[in-house]
Amino acid sequence: MFFEPPPAQEESTRPPKPGLPAWYAPPAEEMGAVMTSGLVLARTPDIVITLPTIQAFRTGCLMNVDIAMRRHTMSAAERLVPYWPDSAQGE
Predict the structure, then answer these.
(1) Residue 46 φ/ψ region, left for φ over 0, alpha for ψ in the -120 to 50 degree band, beta for the rest
(2) Beta-strand relationship, 33-43 and 47-57
(3) How many CB atoms lie within 10 A of CB 52?
(4) DSSP H helices in 1-91
(5) Which residues pair with 91 in a beta bridge?
């Protein structure tokens, strides 16, 4: 052989990596209960942010957030001003 085989390595004594917490994602074997909320989180003349549905599981919940805005009425910086006022200064 052109190269020598690498030396045999000892078994790693590191513990296994921990798994993800139960709340990280919905359980694979559970469908959850869907509830409609119709909650409006924020509204301006050009943008509306809503929380239309919540899906509840035994380990937590999954919230759907919808953002709708009028096209071509504002620049990207102007869209953020009501929520992050410092964005108007380019920070």
Answers:
(1) alpha
(2) antiparallel
(3) 13
(4) 76-80
(5) none
- Tokens for 3, please give them: 């190269």
Kindly state the tokens that stand for 28. Answer: 């694979």
User: Rounded to whole angstroms, how far apart are CA atoms 40 and 66?
Assistant: 10
Mean pLDDT of the chain: 82
Confidence grade of residue 69 (pLDDT, cut at 50, 70, 90): confident
**Residues sharing a CB contact under 8 Å with residue 4, sequence separation 6 or more, in sequence order:** none
Question: 77-89 burial string, b = 16+ CB within 10 Å, else e?
Answer: eebeeeeeeeeee
Q: Give the angle 82-37-49 at the CA atoms, nearest 5°.
A: 20
Q: Which two tokens stand for residue 29?
A: 């074997």
Look up residue 71 and give its DSSP letter.
T
pTM exceeds 0.70, yes or no: no
